[in-house]
């Protein structure tokens, strides 16, 4: 999981094709991109609105690169931490990825990238940080279900995704 394309393969495996599950607050989604994000992207490009059902792989790749890979700073991190940060940003939001990373680094939790995070992450052990960050995901999911029981329908998929992420991270030497 050294490159954006490697990490994107993992993300796309879990994000799948078109869905519009009433229990999903994101609404209509295709290739993991929600309709509102796709609308924003097309507007920024000066393109007409259209259904997220029609998103191309190139458009999805561009959105993932700019709105998640770069926005979460995964682009500048070594494997396997880049994968954990990127997948968390996609699945839970860039703010949550920053929060989990800052906590894993032993810093005050922050929903935005900070200078303190930047200073500390480059001297941190990326494997240990990735494991500490990934370990926060299941607890967050349980908290989310307790707050909003309708989300329980997604728990099995989230658990499988988290398990596979842990397995990939553990392939790196401690």
Describe the structure.
With 174 residues, this protein is mostly helical. The chain has a single domain, classed as Chitosanase, subunit A, domain 1, CATH 1.20.141.10. The chain is built from nine helices and two strands; from the N terminus they run αββαααααααα. The protein has helices spanning 4-15, 35-44, 57-70, 81-92, 94-104, 115-121, 126-134, 136-147, 155-170; strands spanning 29-30, 33-34. It has a two-stranded antiparallel ribbon with strand order 1-2. A hairpin with a 2-residue loop joins β1 (29-30) and β2 (33-34). α7 (126-134) packs antiparallel against α9 (155-170) and α8 (136-147) packs antiparallel against α9 (155-170).
Question: What attributes characterize this protein structure?
Answer:
174 residues, mainly alpha, Chitosanase, subunit A, domain 1, two-stranded antiparallel sheet, 9 helices, 59% helix
